[in-house]
# Entry
Amino acid sequence: QVRLVESGGGLVQPGGSLRLSCAASGFTLADYGIGWFRQAPGKEREGVSCISSTIINTYYADSVKGRFTISRDNAKNLVYLQMNSLKPEDTAIYYCATTYAIVSDCRPSNDYWGQGTQVTVSS
# Structure
């Protein structure tokens, strides 16, 4: 079926870095805004970062500003989330999903979701 596929998660020590990738299966990713969302045990799902289809606009949650960077390579049908200076509080399952047109309204449009990739930050 048509879906998004995340990769790049894993176990990292505090202060370390990871880069997550989001790849489209069955559609052209360049046609959509894309967001990264995460959910930790006992916590609500939260929007981490969103990027518009035109690459002009980005959004970051306050908790990750200055540490995470969202980007996209439309030629490769990929969206990335570079995560630096990772903290234990960043531990969660990270999902990518299509989003709405207004990038500051960083919410999933419920068109396509990925299966998630686990990020664990622990010493």
In short: DSSP finds no helices and eleven strands in the chain.
